[in-house]
Please model this.
Amino acid sequence: MIEVGFTPSIVGLIKAAAAYNGLFNGKEQETGIIQLELMLDKGFIDEDITSDYRTNFPKEFYSYEHFSEEDIEEPLDEDDCWSRRGILNQWDLFNKYLPVEKNVRIWVSETAESYCGFLWLCNYLECKNINVYILKCPDIVRGRQIIKRWEQLERKDLVNNIKNSVKLTETEISIHARRWEELIKENSLLRVLLGSEVISVNEDFYDFIIRKHLPNDEIKQKTLISNIFFSAPIPISNIWYMRRIDYLISQGEIVIVEDAYNQNERLLKKA
Model:
């Protein structure tokens, strides 16, 4: 069985559960755990995932959080799974194991990134005579919070739920594959999860949340983003909000009262 996750957090949990909790009934599974952090909920998707655009996308996206051009140009560790080389290495490993294992389990969280990865992989595997299993994160109640993302759980939760893996029929795989092809045709810059459906939206889709939480008084950018996550816990990166805040600044909707070397430390206010 090849285990596939779309973020470092879930892949790290799978490996930890395999090592310490007997996730795979005590069998060694380390080499069959693949991280494909492709971020297919963001950016254009009409190019192959091995293209320069798609393999460089995660690095360019994450680099936005650095504080200077020198930081951005700093080379990534070659082993980092979201560097271009890291992505290609993981993809090569996946295709190396595929003819041998013939079984793929896809770990899916309630996020657009995870669902997009799932749809894309169904499209890739559709005609390869491979058994495809999906393991969706169940709704788990912790206090007042309902957790729907594997990344927020513990090793024991993975062990307890692996029995809930569901094998997809050929028809189901085809349905998911066709949906991915529809998304490719739409080719928007952002895809979001509404219910259990991935839809294409404009990149300004979440801008209203920024506007809603921008007070009349001055506010630090990091406080603004923290307030957004606290009151509207949408599973999208803080970097996305950083990029959109910059856009709203360029459009004159937000004013920088006091700039800072660290972008999140700058003081902002409504125009």
Remarks:
- The chain has two domains: 2-186, 207-270.
